[in-house]
Structure of PIRT protein:
Amino acid sequence: MELPPRSPSGGEQSPQGRELVTSETGSTLCTSSRSESVWTSAPRSKWDIYHKPLIVVSVGAAIFLFGVVITSLSCFLTKNKKVYKMSGPAFLSLGLMLLVCGLVWIPIIRKKQKQRQKSQFLQSLKSFFFNR
């Protein structure tokens, strides 16, 4: 069985040890986290919750409609017909992809909100029974 390496004398710390002690890893992880913190329970408006998927849906719908217009131009115009035939379906597919991604994102957010509410309820129940 191997013994762990001995640390320098009691008062001294290695450079790595001093760096770890003075590091604020925990606080920087919480502040730089992209997800909502568990400890903040401030109510958020519907716009704060759903603004990103709504923007993706609206941009996707706009690009999709632009693709429809460009594709239909290839039927009516004879000049630059190849350009319209190539770019129209590209805009159609890009717009449809963004539209579907945004529409799928909304139920995912709803499910996360329900889980978060359930988790907060269970935490309050646990704290009620165990903090007596």
Observations:
- The first helix runs from residue 15 to 22.
- Confidence is low (pLDDT under 50) at residues 27-33.
- The two ends are 46 Å apart (CA to CA).
- Residues 48-111 form one domain.
